């Protein structure tokens, strides 16, 4: 059994008033358990109230004693994970979104599933994080972390972009496509899966390159070790191109810009119920357990 948690920090999907009843329900349940409970500072500013809870920022939370509970969908968990990856604070997801590969529990399961987790009966899951840097000439114009994927894409235009891709300074290809996804195993069940990439188990030490609607039919997804450094240089575009990290930002790109992607030194730390496993999640989310219907 792991060490019980001593405090809980609640965070919810931003700019979504529908999460307030769920937050209130979580607050009431945790306080009834006698567990010190806080509301994340930016979350409180977003919903316009503290729900009667003391406020705590991510910077003030402690990795060895605190648990962050994120209420929302996978986007909420990804944003929370980017905030906490450097400090290693654990995150538990309560799903109030759509598919929810990362958010394990629904709000209806809290009363049954949450007490064992709070007492230390849980499994820990460390997920790899990507560091992406945008180099414009000799200057690093932008850098950031991604849990799911780094996406280089054509922005809002209709024309394809052209990228020259290198892995560990070895030329791989020049690709004309709508974009290129560089994903972690976590991200293999997100945009990369929609674009035709394979599903990677979360603990696999690998990165995934998936072209989006490539101009050639011979282009295929590529899985490489996560120790490599990937360079993608924008060599041609007719309309604006952009760089996105986990779909939470969009940075305009210029011809000659180079995006350097490698695994970051930190990891995202997720908490799951003891009995859960990745294949169970796949069966549930992708309906693998259902039998084909009869004609």
TrEMBL record:
<keyword id="KW-0808">Transferase</keyword>
<dbReference type="InterPro" id="IPR016064">
    <property type="entry name" value="NAD/diacylglycerol_kinase_sf"/>
</dbReference>
<keyword id="KW-0520">NAD</keyword>
<keyword id="KW-0547">Nucleotide-binding</keyword>
<feature type="binding site">
    <location>
        <position position="178"/>
    </location>
    <ligand>
        <name>NAD(+)</name>
    </ligand>
</feature>
<dbReference type="InterPro" id="IPR017438">
    <property type="entry name" value="ATP-NAD_kinase_N"/>
</dbReference>
<feature type="active site" description="Proton acceptor">
    <location>
        <position position="74"/>
    </location>
</feature>
<dbReference type="GO" id="GO:0019674">
    <property type="term" value="P:NAD+ metabolic process"/>
</dbReference>
<dbReference type="Pfam" id="PF01513">
    <property type="entry name" value="NAD_kinase"/>
</dbReference>
<feature type="binding site">
    <location>
        <begin position="74"/>
        <end position="75"/>
    </location>
    <ligand>
        <name>NAD(+)</name>
    </ligand>
</feature>
<dbReference type="GO" id="GO:0046872">
    <property type="term" value="F:metal ion binding"/>
</dbReference>
<dbReference type="GO" id="GO:0003951">
    <property type="term" value="F:NAD+ kinase activity"/>
</dbReference>
<keyword id="KW-0521">NADP</keyword>
<dbReference type="InterPro" id="IPR002504">
    <property type="entry name" value="NADK"/>
</dbReference>
<feature type="binding site">
    <location>
        <begin position="189"/>
        <end position="194"/>
    </location>
    <ligand>
        <name>NAD(+)</name>
    </ligand>
</feature>
<keyword id="KW-0963">Cytoplasm</keyword>
<keyword id="KW-0418">Kinase</keyword>
<dbReference type="GO" id="GO:0006741">
    <property type="term" value="P:NADP+ biosynthetic process"/>
</dbReference>
<protein>
    <recommendedName>
        <fullName>NAD kinase</fullName>
        <ecNumber>2.7.1.23</ecNumber>
    </recommendedName>
</protein>
<comment type="function">
    <text>Involved in the regulation of the intracellular balance of NAD and NADP, and is a key enzyme in the biosynthesis of NADP. Catalyzes specifically the phosphorylation on 2'-hydroxyl of the adenosine moiety of NAD to yield NADP.</text>
</comment>
<dbReference type="GO" id="GO:0005524">
    <property type="term" value="F:ATP binding"/>
</dbReference>
<feature type="binding site">
    <location>
        <begin position="148"/>
        <end position="149"/>
    </location>
    <ligand>
        <name>NAD(+)</name>
    </ligand>
</feature>
<dbReference type="Pfam" id="PF20143">
    <property type="entry name" value="NAD_kinase_C"/>
</dbReference>
<dbReference type="GO" id="GO:0051287">
    <property type="term" value="F:NAD binding"/>
</dbReference>
<feature type="binding site">
    <location>
        <position position="176"/>
    </location>
    <ligand>
        <name>NAD(+)</name>
    </ligand>
</feature>
<dbReference type="InterPro" id="IPR017437">
    <property type="entry name" value="ATP-NAD_kinase_PpnK-typ_C"/>
</dbReference>
<dbReference type="GO" id="GO:0005737">
    <property type="term" value="C:cytoplasm"/>
</dbReference>
<keyword id="KW-0067">ATP-binding</keyword>
<comment type="similarity">
    <text>Belongs to the NAD kinase family.</text>
</comment>
């Amino acid at each position: 059994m792991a060490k019980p948690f001593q405090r809980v920090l609640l965070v919810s999907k931003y700019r979504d008033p529908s999460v307030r009843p769920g937050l209130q329900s979580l607050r009431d349940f945790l306080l009834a358990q006698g567990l010190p409970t806080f509301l994340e500072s930016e979350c409180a500013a977003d919903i316009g109230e503290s729900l009667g809870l003391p406020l705590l920022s991510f910077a003030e939370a402690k990795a060895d004693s605190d648990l962050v509970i994120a209420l929302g969908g996978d986007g909420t968990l990804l944003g929370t994970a980017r905030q906490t990856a450097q400090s290693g604070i654990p995150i538990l997801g309560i799903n109030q979104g759509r598919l929810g590969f990362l958010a394990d529990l629904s709000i209806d399961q809290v009363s049954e599933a949450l007490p064992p987790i709070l007492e230390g009966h849980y499994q820990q899951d460390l997920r790899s994080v990507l560091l992406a840097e945008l180099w414009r000439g000799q200057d690093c114009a932008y850098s950031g972390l991604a849990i799911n994927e780094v996406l280089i894409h054509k922005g809002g235009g209709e024309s394809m972009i052209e990228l020259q891709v290198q892995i560990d300074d070895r030329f791989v290809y020049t690709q004309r496509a709508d974009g290129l996804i560089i994903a972690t195993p976590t991200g293999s069940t997100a945009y990369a899966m929609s674009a035709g990439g394979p599903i990677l188990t979360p603990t696999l030490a690998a990165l995934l390159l998936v072209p989006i609607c490539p101009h050639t039919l011979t282009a295929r997804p590529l899985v490489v070790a996560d120790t490599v450094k990937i360079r993608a240089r924008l060599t041609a575009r007719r309309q604006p191109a952009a760089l996105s990290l986990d779909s939470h930002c969009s940075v305009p790109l210029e011809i000659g810009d180079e995006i350097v992607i490698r695994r970051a030194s930190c990891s995202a730390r997720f908490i799951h119920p003891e009995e859960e496993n990745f294949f169970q999640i796949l069966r549930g989310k992708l309906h693998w357990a259902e039998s084909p219907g009869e004609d």
